[in-house]
Amino acid sequence: MKAEHKLDSLVRAAWLYYVSGKNQSEIAVILGVSRPAVQRMIASANEEGIISIDIKHPVAICLEYEKMLQEKFNLSLCRIVPYEKNSGSDHKTLVSYGASQVISQYIKQDEPLTIGLGSGLTLKLSINNLENINKSQHQCIALISQMNSDGLCNYYDDVPMLFADKIKAGYYQLPAPLYSTNEQSHKVWCSTDLYQQMALKASNADVIFIGIGSIGESSPIVSNGFINDKESQALQKKGAVGELLGRFFDHQGQVIKHPINTRVTSHDLRQSNKAAIIGIASGWEKQTAILASLRGKWINGLITDEQTARWLLTQ
Fold first, then answer.
1. With contact defined as beta carbons under 8 Å apart, do 43 and 267 qualify?
2. According to CATH, what is the number of the domain 61-314?
């Protein structure tokens, strides 16, 4: 892990201890480290002069944003990553480091987990940041197909396979194209025994990590050929502002009434009753979609950047 991200963890420990009043055991659980590691982090924060009357670090304001966003949107988890224009890294890269820390906390658990994975560039970067580790007790289920209606797959949506390979987990795919050609074929694809088995596994996932997609000419779901420009424009005229696992929704997070939403085969997040559903997205172009996904209660966890967090709190 890069030095600045180690410092971020150190500041988080100090903030939780001195500001939130958490004890060292509670902090260890939150950060996914040992209690002795928390002791060392707090001691280092004092030694490095981070602790005074205030905690002097950009992460401190991000921690305040996390608390406010959790209260505003009733989130079980929120991680805000500081973003500075002159840092030399773009917001996706910075958010991916924060996301990889959260993902690591889950996969390091000894108890077997079923982990649902969507797609998205930031999610993919997050998984690339993970260390190779043998956690074969876990299993990974793809929540969205990487195959179009012609059977063509693209590497953009190979996120679940990449993740499963990183941790040596069992890997399960949805056996259908992302969008069927019509409603009749959709019924055929989704009624097979294998699809039903995978759908049940997805519904019973313990934790889900997904990207939040925008809609427009430059959005991956268009540029990668899953929908065309005409369909994209029609969806936007209907009020679509974003998508989750290929399912399009409006400003309030309500599913758009459009034929394409009746042909999508990906997992419906509304069927996930027990999972922590963590959305990973950042940047001004995603802000409206992120807000809509929060309003619609599609996600109960969020990892994003400081500027987006500030914008969400003003809405």
1. no
2. 3.40.50.1360
Residue 271 contacts residue 203 (beta carbons within 8 Å): yes
For residue 85, the tally of other CB atoms under 10 A from its CB is 7
Q: SS3 for 275? A: coil
Work out the angle between the directed axes of helices 3-18 and 91-107 (0-180°, nearest 10): 70
3-state secondary structure of 223: helix
Q: What are phi and psi of 249, to 5 degrees?
A: -140, 165
pLDDT per residue as tens digits for the range 207-257 = 999 999 999 877 888 887 888 899 999 999 999 999 999 999 999 999 999
Question: How far is CA 156 from its chain centroid?
Answer: 16
| CA distances (Å), origin 15, targets 42, 61, 67, 71 | 9, 10, 12, 18
Q: Which residues contact 201 (CB under 8 A, 6 or more apart)?
A: 114, 139, 141, 172
The dihedral sign for the CA sequence 158, 142, 221, 83: negative
For 1-56, CATH number? 1.10.10.10
What's the one-letter identity of residue 24? Answer: Q
The ranges of the chain annotated as CATH 1.10.10.10 are 1-56
**CA distance linking residue 69 with residue 312, whole number of Å:** 8
How many Å is the Cα radius of gyration of the chain? 20
d(CA 83, CA 263): 38
Residues 6+ apart with CB under 8 A from 71: none
Please give the model's pTM, rounded to 2 decimal places: 0.81
